[in-house]
Amino acid sequence: MSTSVGLYSVIAIGLLASPALYAADAAKSSFEWDLRVRHESVDDAGFARNAEATTARLRAGLRLAPAPGWTVLLEGEGVAGAGNYNSGANGKTQYPVVMDPTGAELNQAWVGWKNAQGGITVGRQRIALDNQRWVGNVGWRQNEQTFDAIGAQWKPVAGLTLNYFWLDKVHRAAGGNALNTLARARDLDTHLLNLAFKRGNQQWVGYGYLHEDKDVASASTATWGLRWTGALDKSGQGFGWAAELARQTDYAQNPAHFSHNYWLLEPSWAQGKTTLRAGWEHLGGDGVTALQTPLATLHAFNGWDDQFGVTPVKGLEDRYLSAGGKFGRGKYDSKLAWAVAWHDYRSDMGSVRYGREWNASLGFPLPGGLNGLVKLADYRANAFSRDNTKLWLQVEWRGTRALAQ
Asked: What does UniProt give as the signal peptide span (predicted)?
């Protein structure tokens, strides 16, 4: 029996046998749902036909409070789809990829306890650290990335938080039906240490991520870094910044030997409901290997067209400008959200011009508590990949309902 199977057998048996589960505090228990319908169109210059994918994802769960401080979450997820696209599981390789395969799975199943000083969570869970550059849930895709893990949090003094996670397995966004078995899930022995200190409107985070991939040894890395974010004005207006520096080396049974640098410099200026940013993100490469972030929410970085889910071996330099904020009048005041970004991509070695990309999005409320989104990504290739354009139209409905009042 694998560690993961044994872990969840113990959890399941314990939950089903526990009288406390059936005596859960109904007033603090709830049913949660997230229904998202999306159409994604992909025009890839490498294919004769465009991809047209219409998918619907329902995520629903039961959150129970069996005793003071205790929480149990059981959550399932199902995706249905129609159209001509390569989901990674349907074999339609004559079309561009839209990685939203159909299927159903247990998304989360965990037991947690916490108080004002900290807590612990055991089971299949969502993990999103800081800005999700290193570890995240890949929330943009219909099938979420979750982890079989043990997590602990400790708050010894005000403003200081220590997070530790041991990861036994990652269930990837490609889903359990992916034709590539390594894209479904990976067995891990990964340790995540994240120490955050917040004072006023500034935060410092030190981290060490010792990632061992038991299925792909060459993906095992050790990453140590420091992140600093803040703003001069406590209101968040005016000048702000994000700065980060990290070093990644080979780890565990990785047959390669390397050491790569990561840095991010992102000054910003907030005025009213609008924020402007300029950024320079560096992912080092030596022509043979490059810095990688396999557990990250990759869609949030280096453009929405997802050209750089795997860092090229010559590394990546992403220089970007972005603007975004909220607007609206009357009942729609601050309920319309917009964003525009421009990226210039080059290599770390030789400053090869990879390409350029424009991103734009508009989010808006709809009747009945729904939320709409229109989103565009346009990548123009120079020396990396090929021209590609993606368009998304999305409607989402999420909510929580108490089991009893």
From this structure: 1-23
